Amino acid sequence: MKTIAIIAHDGKKPEMVQFLNENQEILHSKNINIIATGTTGAKTEAAGYKVEKLLSGPLGGDAQIAARIAEGLVDMVIFFRDPLDKHPHEPDIFMLMRLCDVHNVPLATNPATAKLLIKGLV
Ligand SMILES: O=C(CO)COP(=O)(O)O
């Protein structure tokens, strides 16, 4: 069982939904457990996935996922960040990305990279 964390900033949520729709075969066919920040999780659920929803990002969702990464409970992170917007919880976002590097967890921050990464699951 592989756990994938899915996160998208508001400006990138449509791209995340598109990514989930385009990659259903891989993401549904594998033994994959999906966790997500609150609003991203709700959209992931609406796209037909079973998902564990954590808090919304600005309320601590990124920090919750970061903690799971630190505990060795996450195998891959797909985080469509919006580089053109400001985020009040930027420290949490950097913490999450830093912990991916600390613990050598694959991190995709855009659809092109995410597409390549999930091919590694096949
Ligand atoms: O803010 C986020 C990531 O930093 C995402 O949070 P939501 O999925 O709750 O919108």
UniProtKB/TrEMBL annotation:
Gene: mgsA
MGS-like domain residues: 1-122
Highest taxon, organism lineage: Bacteria
GO molecular-function term, one example from the UniProt record: methylglyoxal synthase activity
Reaction it catalyzes: dihydroxyacetone phosphate = methylglyoxal + phosphate
Entry-linked InterPro entries: Methylgl_synth, Methylglyoxal_synth_AS, MGS-like_dom, MGS-like_dom_sf
UniProt-listed Gene3D superfamilies: Methylglyoxal synthase-like domain (3.40.50.1380)
Family of the protein in this entry: Belongs to the methylglyoxal synthase family.
Statement: the UniProt record of this protein carries the keyword Endoplasmic reticulum: no
Binding site for substrate: H9, K13, T37, G38, T39, T40, S56, G57, H89
TM annotation in the entry: none
GO biological process terms on file: methylglyoxal biosynthetic process
GO cellular component: cytosol
EC number: 4.2.3.3
Name of a matching Pfam family: MGS
Chain's role: Catalyzes the formation of methylglyoxal from dihydroxyacetone phosphate.
Protein's UniProt name: Methylglyoxal synthase
Keyword line: Lyase
Active site as annotated: D62 (proton donor/acceptor)
